[in-house]
Design brief:
Elements lengths: L1 E9 L4 H18 L3 E16 L2 E13 L1 H13 L3 E8 L22 H22 L1
Length: 136
């Protein structure tokens, strides 16, 4: 079983009750296919461009676990719902811990020549002072 995140835009006209109904249908599908419905969040959003004629939609994000073969069936179910404007089912990637670097001393960064530049700038300042004093 793999972990997925389902994101969909719902018709704003259906309200929270309609979103809850859609979520319960999705939850039922997931449970019928031996999956796990982990939770849903929703909020009304203004869209950057029209989606099926709507400038606002209810954005819903659902975390779930499902067998890969059932994922395609879930996408078909989502496309059949008129109140779902757009949907995306994304596979969650496992976050790995950063690798530890073992052994030895830390590598020395190659010098960028900043020390030699400082010396050169000091010499330039001295020359400028000499020239200014000579001209006075």
């Amino acid at each position: 079983m793999k972990q997925y995140e389902l994101i969909y835009l719902a018709n704003p006209g259906i309200g929270e009750e309609g979103v809850e109904e859609l979520n319960s249908q999705i939850s039922d599908f997931v449970r019928q296919n031996q999956g796990l419905f982990e939770g849903a969040k929703s909020e009304k959003r203004r869209l950057g461009y029209l989606v099926k004629g709507f400038s606002e939609a209810i954005l819903v994000v659902i975390s779930l676990s499902l067998k890969p073969e059932s994922a395609a069936e879930l996408q078909k179910l989502l496309k059949s719902k008129e109140d779902i404007l757009r949907s995306m089912l994304a596979l969650k990637l496992k976050e790995s811990a950063p690798e530890k670097i073992s052994g030895g001393e830390p590598e020395k960064q190659p010098s960028s020549g900043s020390e030699s530049k400082k010396v050169a700038i000091e010499k330039i300042d001295e020359k400028i002072d000499e020239i200014l004093h000579e001209s006075q």
